[in-house]
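A note from the maintainers: we've had questions about how concatenated examples are separated. There is no special marker in the raw files; a new sequence line simply starts the next protein. For clarity in this README we add a label.
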Amino acid sequence: MLENRDYTLIIDKSGSMATPDQKGGRSRWLAAQESTFALASKCEQLDPDGITVYLFSGRFKRYENVTSSKVSQIFQENDPAGTTDLAAVLKHATDNYFERKTAGKTKPNGETILVVTDGEPDDRKAVMKVIIEASRRMDRDEELAISFIQVGKDPHASRFLKVLDDELQTAGAKFDICDTITMDDMEDMSLSEVLLNAIND
């Protein structure tokens, strides 16, 4: 299933990502960089084109065809600052998937979008709406999967991500496309291990 699938990684670069609460006193931002590198390296074995990476706070930037060799440059160009406008970046990523699908440019097994975030988004309802609308454009359950991975211990973020995991179908989603991993679920795994698990799932 991993082959013939595209991977998009969306990384929160809001100000709180600078918090040094990861193993060994590392910042969430550094943990995100390490895990992006691990994910890009793994995906390169399956797909030499690399992965798509978005970094977002109040605005977002999209990087195409990111291989492991490009990861450090992307993180050097960006610093954690700003708010958490998750809805806008998620809408761009899902719209882009459906545009490519219409043009016959998606992989046979679809796409997985992995979102690494540490806080509650600026607009919870808007995020839910984007996911529900995306699910309604899908033809089959497995073509698009969105995994939210929480870094840090913000209880509001944990609660919101659980809602995305459990309640979107009752709110009108056509398929259950979200999966959420919080810090508590991670136990002793590093963020890199969690990301690799999410794509193997």
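[label: protein 2]
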Amino acid sequence: MKKTVANLKENLAALRTGRASTALFDKLRVDAYGDKQAINQVANISVPEARLVIITPWDKALVSEIEKAIRNSELSLNPSNDGKVIRISIPPLTGERRKELVKIAKNYAEQSKVALRNIRRDGNDELKKQLKAAEITEDGEKKAQKDLQELTNKYVAETDKVFAEKETEIMEG
């Protein structure tokens, strides 16, 4: 369940808000040395200002490949380079794009809740097997089911909290 919430946080971090963030490029891959590499494996990414990202490749030959990967990504960003570094100005989001991003974030949160419920279901199935095999008592099963439900509720609430924070960030961005 912890991994599910961590995965949600990772997915939401990759969503572009109105602010510059190095997390925007975490899932972006670039063709480098005959293989797909994460951008942070071939370049230094920094955020000197709220709406500016600077990517400095360690190998200057990768400037055009990194620029191409950013242009072809779903981030809708327009990078520019001077042959040594890539500058990306993060434009402010339109109201329509903000609503679209909130929908995407809500979908990620919903997927996480479904995953949490599936984990609970698998746990309950395991408890039933243990009861059938006489490994636990009926009271033990009921208590374990109650504990599992409480744990599920806790992580569902954490998922809601993470989503609400991201929604606020997107809408005020």
